[in-house]
Protein 1
Amino acid sequence: MAVQDADTNLLNLSFNEFDLKLKEYAKEFNVPIIKDGGLALLEQTIMLKRPKRILEIGTAIGYSAIRMNRLIGSEIYTIERNIDMYNEALKNVKALNKENEIHIIFKDALEAFDDVKNLEFDMIFIDAAKAQYMKFFNLYTPLLTKNGVVFCDNMLFHGLVLDEANYDNLSRSVRGLARKLKAFHDELLSNKDYKTSVFDIGDGVSISIKL
């Protein structure tokens, strides 16, 4: 039986017991997973576009991969470089007997292209090292089908990306990350091969449609 989260009524999200277990694990161990607002937009996008195959960059514990697969049975290829996260995701996928539908690749995403280079993807979901978003985008979008979608999470980075007036008040590392994400925004919005919008939902998400 689905369990409805009272804080997400307007998003019309439902969570089963396994979802709630993963959310609790993420909260307890400070694992970054997509926020409910971003998840709702991601799932609506999947329902509209009906992707047969999705590439996810940044598996974490497998929460989003499991949710994406459940919607319409999309085949998921997902890349994770952290051994602890990889093992946890593998355990969660096996618990649901989804190993034939959710394929987890244990590598740095910048080194995993050869593992998927012979595949086409209808959707790419980027939710990994934010400083590398542009590299991920450039590396993997050649595998995207026409009218395919690139969905990126954490695009506003707690609101810091658009707060350029206060960049000097940030630590050097955080300031550098905010500037890299801002440059990625600008690059996406000016890319004539894609129609991109950035939404102030969750921690900020972007949707880019390949023209």
Note: The chain has one domain: 32-210.
Protein 2
Amino acid sequence: MSVTTGLFYIFSAILLLSAFKVITARNPVHAVLFLVLTFFQASMIWMLLKAEFLSLSLVLVYVGAVMVLFLFVVMMLEVNVESLRVGFWNHFPLAAIVGVVIALEMSAVLMGGFRVVDNQAVSVADAGALKISNAKELGKMLYTQYLYPLEVAAAILLVAMIAAIALTMRERKDTKTVSSGEQVRVKARDRLVVVQMDATIAATEQTSVVNKVETKA
């Protein structure tokens, strides 16, 4: 057994264990952390397959952005775990059937092997021998042949980001918000107002009232 094969088995075992803990963890924060570990192990497997671009993209996009967002959302929303587990066993048979079907399909694909359609395609070993960088070749293809679709996708993501910011900036009736413009334009004299008020009871009158009460007592 080579070192690469041993690392593959180690990463695969950790990936399966962490993926199982994602669906069995009682704490949603722990489930998100196990999912982060799952993505890291999948990234290592991609690295062993010499797919550096996919490996780095998985870490940067999913672990660095999406999962961190999920973690903050789960921690801030204070999800009631007990209410989420209500009705779990009612949906378990359907979920088990779907899981068995997916496992059978994956077994059929893995046992049948992968058939190479193009005989002129360069294998992974040949690519390593020829010193071909898949990240470099993918970058050339994205910014030459698929430049316009890439720009369209970037514009769509920009519009989605602006829309998300606009949705969060709208006024809600169930929250108390203060306009940032009003906070900037406020002046020092507007922050404190001194009101002149007459005393309800003068000091001498108050002392005489207290003395009369003590005398009666």
Note: The CA atoms of residues 51 and 134 lie 7 Å apart.
Protein 3
Amino acid sequence: MVLLSLNLDTSASVILTISIMLFIAFLLTRITKRFKLPNVTAYLFAGILIGPHVLNLIPASVISGMEFLTDLALALIAFGVGRYLKLDALRANSIQTVIITLFESLLAGAAVTLIMFLGFKIPLPLALMLGAIASATAPTSTLMTIRDYRAKGPFVNVTLQVIALDNVLALIAFSVVAAVIQATVGGGQVEAAVIILPVVLNLFTIALGVGFGFLLNRLINDKRTSDNRLLLSVAAISALAGICAAFGVSPLLACMALGTAYINLSGNTELFDQVSGFAPVILTMFFVLSGMRLDVPALAGAGVIGVSYFLVRIVGKFAGAYLGAGLSGASREVKQYLGMALIPQAGVSIGLAILGQRLLPADMGSLLSTIVLSSAVLYEIVGPASAKAALHMAGAIPKEEKKREEPLSEAKLLTVSHS
């Protein structure tokens, strides 16, 4: 049953689709809230519910026409991640943070790739893509837990820096894997020009992102109203994402560079808060759309693979964080508990899965999105609890501190003491 199968013009269908997506997403959050599950879980289930495999409320033509939401949502996510790459904060623990990030990110990615390829005999391009995606960590669950419990101290600082850097590493790994896949899928050979061109394009868009950061810093000043600041920032993010789409590259690295350049030039976190206030509607539609794209019948066949991906990534994160912290001389708390704070995986991984689906053949692309989307639900269920446990055992939550009705603002979160 396609609800919008009436003789409606395109604009009416799209407008009604947006209304259905947002309304169903809201209704399901009322259910997930009772089970203390994150909203992302509700959004994914909303997409599955109204998608082609369950109620089939939305025409396939409308779903395919909303592809732009993916790039815009990824651009907003990446811009937000950029705020946590402040150079002065990174310098304090630069070598230690880099070592930990390399170990936890690369070990998780390598473990997933090897298990998928050798254990489940899935095609190498798909295994490489899963490995690149496995290295990413979703910052939202951990950040929300830090804010709710007013956690602070060295453990919190290292956690935030590692999460930000491992997303950078994940995006770089994904870009390299994507270039190799574009060169080899279909029986072709890896040619230097085919790999170098995407790398050059990504470097160009990163430089462009830095340039946009300089421009945004010049345009936004105390004389601008709050509304105009938001308009300028969203315009810059959208323009950068559009340029990336025109060149056929992901907007992730470029928009992260934009956010990084702006925060280091201006030190202004209020703009990021404004963009965060604008983003929820776009991100909600993105996650619902991702749920609609999920190949539900494929879940049965991918069940064992999906669970294995879920567990192997967790083991890789734990082992990598433990080894990296030990080699870098990190504190006992970081060594033992950081891995627990790196479990969540949703926004960036889902976006990368959708991008990867475009590059892979249809059957591999469908399996990729099925594995990542289904495991994202599991990660979002256990992620907040594991982040809370990590903060508690690391002593980052004051003993007298209980969950407050008013969480700590992100502006204050960024100024937590390094002592």
Note: The two ends are 60 Å apart (CA to CA).
Protein 4
Amino acid sequence: MAKPVIMLAAGGTGGHIFPALSVGEYLLDHGWTPVFVTDKRGRHMIPDDVKTITISAASPFAARFHLRLWRLFRLGLGLLSSAGSIVFRRPKAVIGFGGYPAVPPVIAAYRLGLPVMLHEQNASMGRANRFLAKRVRLLATSWPDTKGIEPANNTPVIITGTPVRAAFHHIGKDGYTPPEKDKPVRILIVGGSLGAKVFGETVPEAISRLPDDLKKRLQLVHQVRAEQMAEVRARYDKNGINAELTSFIHDMSAEMKQAHLVICRAGASSVAELAAAGRPALLVPYPHAMDNHQTANAQVVHDIGGGWLTPEAEMSAGSLAGKIAALIADPARLTIAANNIIQLAKPDAAKDLAEHIISLTKQEHKS
């Protein structure tokens, strides 16, 4: 007998895809068939053996009128494709994880009368989820007091946190060990699932300005854009820096486990992984993120004392070098931050989200 289907719709970045994958794993282990819906970007982040539907989608916001029309047309194609997939796959429910590729399947499910819920990863609601919120039966958030929720929608709201893989929570349970005097210092530098150009420019320059005795202790793992790889490698080699460069980190939990300090963006998944693992971080929000949601995420971490908000506009090589040197010289400060950020961890987030969407299917069956 075929297992019942639940459809998971997510935008094409890691911040949307990775939480959806975590929920999908739980559903698969508990007698359900997860089917993912995303765009071409998102499809590359989903394992080949996972059932996935790739649709056309785009943000309708553009400066030029003809681009807006084209993007709306692509969303329309995505809506038709999603409706056809729902009729063919016959899911019991749909859960959206934000991003514009989630809009067509959520709208199609709503119009076809299926139970639908949303999950908002960020501390500030994204535009796609704000648009969809009044059309769903349940809204799950990662943070208390998430900005952008319209009370007039009358949609019930629950707080679940952002799902991350169990491996990150295992790291958190093992605790944090700060760098010891004259011993190696491991720094993990990550620019998000799509990379970050500024991290390949400013960070190597900042590292080159550190005191020589500290540079000798460094062991870096740096995610670098492919087009910057040669330049960054040359800069580190010139300064005798022990650095492993990669365009994509396949096992983030393994690298985070060894890190004394993380320098990264402030996407929802990145923050959730840091919290689960209990790792202190310098958070550099992507300044062009929709509605500046990464700054809101980083502010939550900063306010609890779990990391340091570093606006990109203020991240000069000199200032960053000073921050890194000061933190490495103060292991107690790093330990306090690690203990603080882990308070934001939600180890049952994937289970809670999955159980809520399963509950909606049971309510539908009773009615």
Note: The CA atoms of residues 166 and 347 lie 8 Å apart.
